Amino acid sequence: MSTSLPPTPSEAFELLLAGNRRFVAGAPEHPNQDAARRTETAPAQSPFAVFFGCSDSRLAAEIIFDRGLGDLFVVRTAGHVAGPEVLGSIEYAVSVLESPLVVVLGHDQCGAVAATRAALTDGVSATGYVRDVIERVTPSVLAARAAGLTDEDDIIAEHIRHTVDLLLDRSRVLADQVTAGRAAVVGLSYRLADGSARVVTTRGLPSEVSA
């Protein structure tokens, strides 16, 4: 893929889905992982997607979506909780690097969500800065409870949706890019057992692409 011709949000999304299908099938192509790509990207980067994902060690975006050097701009925190540094990083990728797609990547068996559910149920929270992570995940879990959701996958999906909404609500830069059609935001939920990433929510993509 030429770094001089960034893909549209829809094209970027299709590239990711194709890579995930290869990963699930056990037939990765490992694109853009050679010395030539290293040399090509040394002067500048043009990632076609921004990943805001959970820090879980099993959630390596370049592997899951079969991509290589210079393809993905990755930001990760426990439970994909968003603070100013996260928002600034995403805005940099979208506005300066002109990345056309932002992906919020959650997953099943998320420790941050499990810890938040336990804190709300037992009334005992973690100490230190882990407590801050739990506090930031709490609105998602409470919203899931209010909606009558009890299944883990449904609660994870609600947290992913909440994160997508939060990014667009708090970042005018990102929201304006989406409104102008220059970027889209997608929420994906990754399944640890089979490696598949399913669509939870999309903002700024045509319906035929996001389905």
UniProtKB/TrEMBL annotation:
Keyword Lyase found: yes
Domain of life, source organism: Bacteria
The reaction(s) this protein catalyses: hydrogencarbonate + H(+) = CO2 + H2O
Keywords: Lyase, Zinc
Catalytic activity, EC: 4.2.1.1
Protein family per UniProt: Belongs to the beta-class carbonic anhydrase family.
Function: Reversible hydration of carbon dioxide. Catalyzes the reversible hydration of carbon dioxide to form bicarbonate.
Protein name, as recorded: Carbonic anhydrase
Organism this protein belongs to: Streptomyces nojiriensis
